[in-house]
Amino acid sequence: MSTVTLDWSEFAPRELAGGAVTIGNFDGVHLGHRALISAGRNLADALHGPAIAVTFDPPPHQLLFPGPIRPPLTTLLERAELLREAKADHVAILRTSPALLALSPEAFFEDVLVRQLGAKAIVEGHDFRFGRKRAGNNHTLQGLCTAAGLVFVEVPQLMHGGEPVSSSRVRAAIVRGDVSLAAELLARPHRVTGTVITGAKRGRTIGFPTANLDNVTTVLPDNGVYAVRAIVDGQTHAAAANIGPNPTFGEDAQKIEVHLIDFSGDLYGKAITVEFVARLRETRPFAGVNELVEQLRRDVEEAKTALKAV
């Protein structure tokens, strides 16, 4: 299994040729994406070739619609790892460029799918679009595949709870704090990774030391307190996390603070991955330190219970 980064005009490594190719942004690698990769895996096995997932860096919309960049659901590295976990043999990352986006659907098919990747089959979702100005669709792709002797398979829209599974639905769940629904749609907890920086060190004085995270590049849940798992140095710890300001102490800055339960040690400078399991409550001010401490004790117990339940 490998991950390769390519310009659209380069030849891919030979081990990528002769298989089933699935193309997409794959942000989050949710249940719908996993269904695509699974269909590609089955088709690749029938063809005795590799299952290939093709994604883009950066996402094409960043070039097509310049402006403020929304944090993704996953980093590029996480996306590649999750695609391989979903049983893609190889992940090909195409460098997004104006030249790539200018290719007509026919040129994209010939230059990327046939020449570069040597595909024998293409697997896509029902709403796939490709080529300049997104002019190509699955009807276009079916015709091109038939003319070139390639197999084409369209995977139906996956539904969950009566609604389509999509990256936008996952994002909406996360930003409103519904991390439980997000976990269902992702088939795993949503997670973020950051570096521990020096904070006010107030938590340790009241018995609840926290790791303050910086350099978080993926989307954060809504403000609130969450039951989480904290992964540091390869070890997983039960934890509770607060996202948002600290109104009890008059602080308005947005922060993510993580209290590792039953842990002691120096975390400064370390990378911590936080997996969001359940939302416990909203962020709110307290009358004083004593009231805050009592609430934190309850938060920790509720976090332990929530983590044991999953």
Structural description of this entry:
This protein has 10 helices and 14 strands. Helix 7 runs antiparallel to helix 8. The radius of gyration is 22 Å and the shape is elongated. With 310 residues, the chain is an alpha/beta fold. The strands form 3 sheets. Strands 1-4-3-2-5-6 form a 6-stranded parallel beta sheet, sandwiched between helices. Strands 9-10-13-12-11-14 form a 6-stranded antiparallel beta barrel. The chain has a two-stranded antiparallel sheet with strand order 7-8. The longest helix has 20 residues. The mean pLDDT is 93. It starts with a strand and ends with a helix.
Overall 3D form: elongated
Q: Main beta sheet, described?
A: 6 strands, parallel
SSE succession: EEHEHHEHHEHEEEHHEHEEEEEH
Q: Uncertain segments of ≥5 residues (pLDDT<50)?
A: none
Spatial separation of the terminal alpha carbons: 30 Å
Tally of individual helices: 10
Look at the structure and give the mean pLDDT: 93
Strand order of the largest sheet: 1-4-3-2-5-6
Q: Radius of gyration, rounded? A: 22 Å
Structural class: alpha/beta
Which bin fits the share of residues in helices? 25-40%
> Strand fraction band?
25-35%
**Number of distinct beta strands:** 14
Topology:
Blueprint: E1 2-6, E2 20-23, H1 31-47, E3 51-57, H2 60-64, H3 76-85, E4 90-95, H4 98-101, H5 105-116, E5 121-125, H6 138-148, E6 151-155, E7 159-160, E8 163-164, H7 167-175, H8 179-186, E9 190-197, H9 202-205, E10 211-214, E11 224-232, E12 235-246, E13 251-260, E14 271-281, H10 289-308
Parallel strand pairs: 1-4, 2-3, 2-5, 3-4, 5-6
Antiparallel strand pairs: 7-8, 9-10, 9-14, 10-13, 11-12, 11-14, 12-13
